[in-house]
C-alpha cells in the first residue's frame, strides 16, 4: 500500500523554514513564513506569555481531559477581544481549536456537513485556504482581490463576482492584515461587501489571524463588526499564533454567530462532534496561557503594550522599505499604507528563485514578503536587489 502512494508535494511555504535554516550564508534574510521577528531577528516569547506560564506551572493541579469544546473561560475572554462590543453570549458560541487552521477546518466541515456547498476565496489568498476547504469537501470558487502590479484592491470586480454568488454560498474574508497582500479594505468597501452579502444571503467566514498587527486591536475588528451586523449567520476562525506569539502551541477558536440564538446549541453540538472525530480535543496549554493573560488586568496590559510595540516596528519597516523602493518604483509607496506582516511584490516565480540563489533572500514564489522578518539595517540591501526586478 505504501509503495503505491503518490506522495503529495511538500508545502512550499513551510519548506522555506528548512531551506533558510540550511543556507550557510550569513547575509541571508528570511521573508518567508509569517512569524513576527524582533530587531534581533528573533521570534521571542512575549513577556506576558512567560509570566502566564509561570503562574500555570505554579497553580495547575491536573492534566485531565477538558472535552472537545475546550475551555469556556478562554472562549469568553478571547471573544471579547475578537468581537469586542458586539460580543453577546446569546448570539455567539465558540469552540477552542488547534490553531487558526484547526478552526478553519472545523468551519469547513460544518459547512460541508449537510451537502455540497461553495466557498468563495479571493485571489490571491493564503494558499492553505484552498487546501483546507477542498479537503473538507467544499467547492472552492475564486473572485479577484488584488492586483500586485498596481498594488490596488479589485473591489469592483470582487463585488461583481459576489453579486453572482448563490444564496447559502460562503465567502472567506480576512478580518484584517490580508495574507498575502497586506491590502486593507476601506470601511466603505466592507459596507459595500456586507450589503451584497446580506442581499444575496451569503455566509461570511472571517479569518482573524493577525488582530493587533494592522491598525490596532480595536481597529482590526471593524470590518468583522460590519459583516456580523449585516449578515444573520457568520463563522469566525481565530488564531492566537501571531497575536500572542504562540505559534507551535496551536491555539485558536471557531465562533459561530446567529441572530436567532436558539439554533446555536445545535451548531455547538455539530462542531463538538466534528472535533471529536478529527482530533478529539484541542491542546490545552496555549489556551490556558491566553486565558491567564486576558483574565488579569496587568498581564493583559503587558500583552497589549508588547503587541503594540510589534505593530509599530512593522509600520517603521514598512515606511523604510516603501521609501527605499518608491524613489524608483512609485507604486511601491503602497507598502507603507498596507498593514500587517505581508506585502505582495509583482515578481515572477523564477525571479524569486534567482533572488534566493544569488542573494540568500527567502520568500515564497508568489513574491509575498514577511515585512516582520526584515531588520531596518537590511532594508537598503533588499531594496537594491528588488528595484531592477520591479520595473
Ligand atoms: C503564513 O502564511 O506564513 C502563516 O500563516 C503560516 C502558515 O501556516 O502558512
Explain what this protein looks like in three dimensions:
This protein is α/β, with parallel strands linked by helices and 391 residues long. The chain has two domains: 127 residues, Aspartate Aminotransferase, domain 1 (Alpha-Beta Complex); 249 residues, Type I PLP-dependent aspartate aminotransferase-like (Major domain) (Aspartate Aminotransferase, domain 2). The protein has 14 helices and 13 strands. The strands form four sheets. The chain has a seven-stranded mixed beta sheet, with helices on both faces. A two-stranded parallel sheet has the order 1-12. α4 packs across α9, α7 packs parallel to α8 and α11 packs across α14. The longest helix is centred in the last third of the chain and has 30 residues. The protein is globular and about 60 Å long.
Tags for this entry?
391 residues; Aspartate Aminotransferase, domain 2; binds (2S)-2-hydroxybutanedioic acid; alpha/beta; 44% helix; Aspartate Aminotransferase, domain 1
Fold blueprint:
Blueprint: H1 12-21, E1 29-30, H2 47-59, H3 72-83, E2 92-97, H4 99-112, E3 118-123, H5 127-135, E4 139-144, E5 146-147, E6 152-153, H6 155-163, E7 170-174, H7 187-200, E8 203-208, H8 222-230, E9 233-239, E10 252-258, H9 264-278, H10 285-294, H11 297-326, H12 334-337, E11 342-344, H13 349-359, E12 361-362, E13 368-370, H14 379-390
Helix pairs in contact: 2-10, 2-11, 3-10, 4-5, 4-9, 6-7, 7-8, 11-14
The structure holds (2S)-2-hydroxybutanedioic acid.
Amino acid at each position: 500500500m505504501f509503495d503505491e502512494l503518490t506522495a503529495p508535494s511538500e508545502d512550499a511555504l513551510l519548506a522555506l523554514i528548512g531551506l533558510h535554516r540550511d543556507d550557510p550564508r550569513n547575509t541571508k534574510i528570511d521573508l518567508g513564513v509569517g512569524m513576527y521577528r524582533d530587531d534581533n531577528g528573533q521570534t521571542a516569547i512575549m513577556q506576558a506569555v512567560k509570566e502566564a506560564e509561570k503562574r500555570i506551572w505554579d497553580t495547575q493541579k491536573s492534566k485531565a481531559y477538558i472535552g472537545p469544546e475546550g475551555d469556556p473561560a478562554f472562549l469568553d475572554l478571547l471573544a471579547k477581544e475578537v468581537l469586542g462590543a458586539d460580543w453577546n453570549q446569546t448570539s455567539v458560541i465558540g469552540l477552542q481549536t488547534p490553531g487558526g487552521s484547526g478552526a478553519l477546518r472545523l468551519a469547513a466541515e460544518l459547512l460541508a456537513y449537510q451537502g455540497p456547498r461553495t466557498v468563495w476565496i479571493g485571489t490571491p489568498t493564503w494558499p492553505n485556504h484552498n487546501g483546507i476547504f477542498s479537503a473538507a469537501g467544499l467547492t472552492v470558487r475564486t473572485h479577484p482581490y488584488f492586483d500586485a502590479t498596481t498594488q490596488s484592491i479589485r473591489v469592483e470586480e470582487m463585488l461583481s463576482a459576489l453579486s453572482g454568488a448563490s444564496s447559502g454560498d460562503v465567502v472567506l474574508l480576512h478580518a484584517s492584515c490580508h495574507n498575502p497582500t497586506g491590502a486593507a479594505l476601506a470601511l466603505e468597501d466592507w459596507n459595500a461587501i456586507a450589503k451584497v452579502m446580506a442581499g444575496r444571503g451569503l455566509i461570511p467566514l472571517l479569518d482573524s489571524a493577525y488582530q493587533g498587527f494592522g491598525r490596532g486591536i480595536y481597529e482590526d475588528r471593524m470590518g468583522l463588526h460590519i459583516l456580523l451586523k449585516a449578515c444573520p449567520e457568520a463563522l469566525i476562525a481565530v488564531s492566537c499564533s501571531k497575536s500572542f506569539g504562540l505559534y507551535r502551541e496551536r491555539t485558536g477558536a471557531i465562533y459561530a454567530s446567529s441572530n436567532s440564538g436558539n439554533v446555536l446549541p445545535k451548531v455547538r453540538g455539530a462542531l463538538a462532534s466534528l472535533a471529536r472525530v478529527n482530533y478529539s480535543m484541542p491542546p490545552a496549554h496555549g489556551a490556558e496561557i491566553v486565558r491567564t493573560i486576558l483574565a488579569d488586568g496587568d498581564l493583559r496590559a503587558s500583552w497589549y503594550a508588547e503587541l503594540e510595540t510589534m505593530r509599530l516596528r512593522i509600520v517603521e519597516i514598512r515606511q523604510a522599505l516603501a521609501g527605499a523602493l518608491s524613489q524608483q518604483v512609485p507604486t511601491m509607496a503602497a507598502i507603507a499604507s498596507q498593514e500587517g506582516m505581508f506585502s505582495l511584490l509583482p515578481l515572477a516565480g523564477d525571479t524569486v528563485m534567482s533572488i534566493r540563489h544569488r542573494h540568500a533572500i527567502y520568500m515564497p514564489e508568489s513574491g509575498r514578503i514577511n515585512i516582520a522578518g526584515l531588520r531596518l539595517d537590511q532594508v537598503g540591501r533588499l531594496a537594491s536587489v528588488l528595484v531592477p526586478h520591479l520595473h
